[in-house]
Design brief:
Blueprint: E1 2-6, E2 9-19, E3 22-24, H1 33-43, E4 47-49, H2 57-72, E5 79-85, H3 96-103, E6 111-115, H4 121-133, E7 139-146, E8 166-174, E9 181-187, E10 195-196, E11 214-216, E12 220-222, E13 228-229, H5 231-253, E14 262-265, H6 270-280, H7 301-308, H8 310-317, E15 320-328, E16 332-340, E17 349-351
Parallel strand pairs: 2-17, 5-6, 5-7, 14-15
Antiparallel strand pairs: 1-9, 2-8, 3-4, 7-8, 9-16, 10-13, 11-12, 15-16
Amino acid sequence: MAKGETAGIRIAGIASAVPAQVNGLENLEFIPPEQALKISENVGVRTRRIAPPSICASDLCYAAAARLMRELDWAPGEITGLIFITQTPDYVLPATSHALHARLGLPVSCYAFDINLGCSGFVYGLWIATSLMQNVKGKTLLLVGDTSSHIISPRDQSVAPLFGDAGSATALEPSADAAPMYFELGADGSGVKSLIVPAGGGRRPSDASTGVRTLREGQNFRSDEDLFMDGAEVFTFSLQRVPGLVKAILGSAGCGIDGIDSVVFHQANRFMLEYLAKRIKIPPEKFALALENFGNTSSASIPMAITTTALRERLQNSTARLLLAGFGVGFSWAATVLQCGPGAFPELVECDESIAATVA
């Protein structure tokens, strides 16, 4: 695994945003209520926030960023970097970060770019942002979010009950007193086909057949433009990689689990998370779970867990040492140990369709 360490940078705050619409699993049109209840008990999801077609991941990230900038009293002209991480961009081109750059009123001296990452995206983003900030001084916004519901068939019970939509913004600033952030990162491209939208890109462009939903394994209906997940392969990958990832990052940070105040994993599903926590021997009181009301929010799931659990109130007023780990699509994995708080951690922003940007 690749190792990294950055210093002199602190997280000034994190904000999260979700669609206002709440969807219970019992509302899934093509799944019988008794089957929905069984799925809910297995994966730990009761409700999710689902974006209407007019709301994109960039809209949710904009709402989170605007709220966070107000909380911090950051003027747009102070920001020197904008990084946007998503698997559901507004456009094939240009980069959605450029649309966000204009919408947030950032100066032309502020760089902006997109990164295509999902489950590990938040931790990868922290590593990239803080690494850049070692050379490009100033304040940086890291935006991560996905509207996975836009690429999921509602008739595919292997994914439809699990995923929700969300966006987040993380404010990073130079600080001479900030403790180092430690990183461990890796990838295994053999997992590409295990979590994929097969059609719609350059390798297999959309045509008359790729958007047609047909019966697949497990009595699921989806098209080749919908998300496919091989749950068994993803589970096996997670069990193989995450324990070693946690051991490695603790080694880099020079501490054990007893030296960590809270552990936040990518919120994949409750069964897998609880299995991993027991295997790694993470005390339940240190393990954050935020699946029940939001589902798996892909790249936004770690900041969502930070801002929608008891951690939010703690980090508003005090410091905590956190272990954050994301793992999944790619396959990819990344973990960090860092100090966080006190800072701006506002309440969850709920967005209706008025947040949608004007279509270009």
